[in-house]
Amino acid sequence: MPRVLRACMDKTAHKHLILKALIFPETIMITNGNKMQIKFTKMHGLGNDYIFINCLEQNLGNIDLKKLATKMSSRHFGIGSDGIILIMPPVSKENDFKYRIFNSDGSEAEMCGNGIRCAAKYVYDHNLTKKTKLCFETKAGLIKPELIIEKSAVKEIRVDMGEPVLERKKIPMKGPAGAVINENIDIENKNQNIPPSWEGGGSRMDITKHKGGNTLYHNKKTLKITCVSMGNPHCIIFTANTEFEGFKELGKAIETHESFPNKTNVEFIQVLNRNEIKMRVWERGAGETLACGTGACASAVACILNKKTERQLTVRLKGGDLKIEWDKETNHVFMTGPAVEVFSGKLHLSDPL
Fold it and tell me: In percent, how much of the chain has pLDDT > 70?
């Protein structure tokens, strides 16, 4: 089927984008036998990197998006990223765009704070809109970023992340009704060679001796957790130091804990003062990343619930800083931070997905 005809048959595309496809047919996904080319743009928010695909101008057809995400996200055999983000036509004409995100393991997430800032910059810089106040449809609901323009360029993006969800069942998390604030949780440690060097908020693991004299660390650890949903689940743990042994094993154990039916993101928080915190994150479906926007918002809420900080604070992540505010009047959380475009290119797929 001719590329122009395929574009015109896409009933969900905006009229001006169909016209653009007629004038510039190279913007449609090119197929040649079993070979396909997908145009993409690599972006990051504080090192949390994503591959953007413009589905307003490209028809991905019947491609398996989960497989596409794992292929493109591979650091060695693909482009390399924490996941892919699709920019699509909105379901409702009242909104600007629809946004879908797939993690590097292929799982689809509800939303991503760093990703939504990048999305706002992407649609503005790529002339898909000239509006500075936008509304994206996501699996977490409507998210409204505002572009801060300085000298005709996007300097920062301030995002209204909506109200935090504290009710256990809505996070979701198993257990009795109510909020999860400074609550105990037992974590199984599958790697018994990891020493209990991280104190967390709960008790250390007990130790015993093998008959041969070697130390055995028991496989259960009690932690203090606070849980928040920002459209996706987060489990926050306070610690005296975010750099501790066994981070990967502990992060994975909490992510996949039976208490979280949809798994969870995990944030380890070191409170620096009433206005600053340091955060290290283990993201659901991606592992450790340099930053997590929704995680920064959830962590700020957890700090305020536990009376550790003020309502406006700076979250210091490995990739940089985010400014977070939990507004008392509206109960909305606001996140402000940068977004950067790295490069654009074409992915050549020799095998169909």
Answer: 81
